[in-house]
Known about the structure:
- This protein is of the alpha+beta class.
- It has a domain at about 215-300: TATA-Binding Protein, CATH 3.30.310.10.
- It is about 40% helix and about 15% strand.
- It has 15 helices and twelve strands.
- β5 and β6 (about 225-235) form a beta hairpin.
- α2 packs parallel to α8.
- It starts with a helix and ends with a helix.
Amino acid sequence: xxxxxxxxxxxxxxxxxxxxxxxxxxxxxxxxxxxxxxxxxxxxxxxxxxxxxxxxxxxxxxxxxxxxxxxxxxxxxxxxxxxxxxxxxxxxxxxxxxxxxxxxxxxxxxxxxxxxxxxxxxxxxxxxxxxxxxxxxxxxxxxxxxxxxxxxxxxxxxxxxxxxxxxxxxxxxxxxxxxxxxxxxxxxxxxxxxxxxxxxxxxxxxxxxxxxxxxxxxxxxxxxxxxxxxxxxxxxxxxxxxxxxxxxxxxxxxxxxxxxxxxxxxxxxxxxxxxxxxxxxxxxxxxxxxxxxxxxxxxxxxxxxxxxxxxxxxxxxxxxxxxxxxxxxxxxxxxxxxxxxxxxxxxxx
Length: 349
């Protein structure tokens, strides 16, 4: 961060700074679990969403950013174009001028131009990002220990999470939290050291204190006056009173029986965790359940990322204490807030 600030000062640029709530990150980790390879929800909630919110204010008509992305860095970046757009940052176009360069090209250019470079590279860091990225090998995690006042808090939160789920001590000792599923190659190295089976190293012996919100369609459907009736079950009870405010987003007729159930069009959500949807077309009936489930995620599982708030044209959505709140009187039912949502994406995974 110091290097970025010094570069901006040397270049005479203007620096815009935004910050995601660290408290919100810790709260999200209780729901999603630690970030892992292939499961980096933190990039959405703590980086891209914060940038999207800032850019919507500074550059409401859109922006063009230049990035140092290169095709040799990863399989995903290998297939990326030199000009791309990111769905998590609306109205932003990204240009990658050095997409075809390899690492030797980069360092030759830096040395030729006598450009200062981040001193972390001289310390042996091959890549510089978050202080506890799940892509880091153990050696880099050890190098970064205590590099930030938040490092100890973050690592303590990971320990607390592992303890609350009954994970084995090796889960922390060998930094197994970096993987949603323990890779076979890593088990081949760790298994002989600790003398435990694959199942013993990966089994969670304690359930989460609060079940994540899931939805499951019941098998089959029943005929009704409107044509079809489909039932779905939620993994836990929900707050139908809070859902009532968010139902304005759909622009449908809504009735609320306080603390009991809410009817949105031809669909009813019950506080104890059941959904019944009716209609003349089976696909539309199921689609209605999925749409209302997205609203439930927004009202119950909000990660505070500000994605939906940044897209709201009337300011009906705001973030209060790390959670989205809605003013139904300002909502115009445009549905622009029904966008990609980290809570929805990663709770279903």
